[in-house]
Amino acid sequence: MLQLAKKAISEGADVVELRIDSLRNFGGWERVLDLDGPVILTNRSPREGGHFRGSESERVRLLVQGVSSGVECVDVEFSTPPRLAAQIREKAGHTSILLSHHDFKRTPRPARLLALAGRMARRPCDLLKIVTTACTLRDGLRILEFVVSSRDVVDRPVIAFAMGEAGMFTRFVGPIVGVPLVYAAAGKPTAPGQLSVRETVRVLSSLPRWEVED
Fold first, then answer.
1. pTM of the full predicted structure?
2. Degrees (nearest 5) of the Cα angle 148, 184, 57?
3. Residue 207, exposed/middle/buried by CB under 10 A (0-12, 13-18, 19+)?
4. Which residue of the set 7, 91, 102, 188 is catalytic?
5. Any catalytic annotation for residue 102?
């Protein structure tokens, strides 16, 4: 994991997400935090497409350990039981909380996504992440419409895109309409439609730098 993270940084990644749910052994796992650059710590549950095999309490305990170690950002799933999510917030300190939600079946209409974002924004967090699945081009356009409209609903940055080949374009159009972060793969893709770091940097560097206007 450290080798892949360092490879991503060498290829132009500004931030590294460490998916520790992919680890088979957690003995001394904090070593993966030893990177020259900001880290998003993620321990994804199976219900959100992750691979963590332990209990929910164990999953959150590892995130709390990461926060206590001073990680820059931690991904907290919106579906995490509130009493467990509170344990992460209590230790957060200067660690940013990225509150996430994933839909692996569909892309709801923008109005439903806006309602979801509103509910999420009522939780203590610094960023929102809403990821859906695109089956058609229209689904991709829906998520982009949601991103533009979200500025009228929430006062925090929103990371949003659609997974799948039909939604691949949303990963690169998103930054033009205000999405602050694009996810890419250092090794094997973690989501359908995800490109490598090298490919993503090449595409993003060719896009126009437009300012988002209200």
1. 0.92
2. 90
3. exposed
4. 102
5. yes
Secondary structure of 63-109 in the HEC alphabet?
A: HHHHHHCCCCEEEEECCCCHHHHHHHHHHCCCCEEEEEEECCCCCCC
- For the chain, domains (ranges, CATH) are 1-95 (3.20.20.70), 103-181 (3.20.20.70)
What average pLDDT does range 175-202 have in this prediction? 90
Given phi > 0 = left and psi -120 to 50 = alpha, else beta, which region is 79? alpha
Contact criterion met (CB below 8 Å) for 155 and 122: no
Give φ, ψ of 16 to 5 degrees: -115, 125
Mean of per-residue pLDDT scores for the chain: 93
Q: Which of 51, 101, 129, 188 is catalytic?
A: 129
Largest CA distance in the chain: 49
| 140 C-beta neighbours (distance < 10 Å), count | 25
